[in-house]
User: Fold Periplasmic chaperone for outer membrane proteins Skp from Tepidicella xavieri.
Amino acid sequence: MKSISRDVIRRGLTVLVLSVAAATAMAQEFKIGFVNTDRIFRDSAAAKAAQAKLEQEFSRRERELENLRNQLRAASEKFEREAPTLSESQRTQRQRQLVDMDRDFQRRSREFQEDLNLRKNEELQQVLERANRVIRQIAEAEKYDLIIQEAVYINPKHDITDRVINGLNNGR
Assistant:
C-alpha cells in the first residue's frame, strides 16, 4: 500500500514538473507588445499635422470669439462706470444688451467647442487607423501574438511605441 501511494505521488510530481516546464516553454514563445496611444497622439508627425490642420481651420473662429469676449468685457466695464449716471430705463436697456451679448457669446463658444471636438475626434480617428495599420504590419513582420494599447503596468521591454511612431512618420 505504501509503495502504491509513493508511486502515485511520484507520478503526480512528475506531471506537475512537466506541466510547469511546458507552461514555461509556451510563455517564452508567446510574444507580447505594447503601444502607448497617448504618445502616438502626442509625438507622431501625423498627430502633429492633424493638430496644425485643426489650428488653421479653427483659428479664425477662435479670434472672433476672443474679439467678442473683449467687446463684452469692455461693454460691461463701460456699463459699470456709467450706471450711476443712467436713468432707470437706460440702465435696464443696457443690462438687456449685455445679457444678449453674453448669451450670444456663450452660444458661439459652445458651438465652437462642439465643432472643434468633433473635428478633433475625426482627425485623431484617422491617426489611430493609420497607427493600427502600422501595428498590424509590425505584429505580422515580427511575429507578435498580442499587442495591447492600454495597461496598468507594462515592462518597457515590451513597448513598441517608438517603432510605431517611426512607422507612421516614415509613411508606412
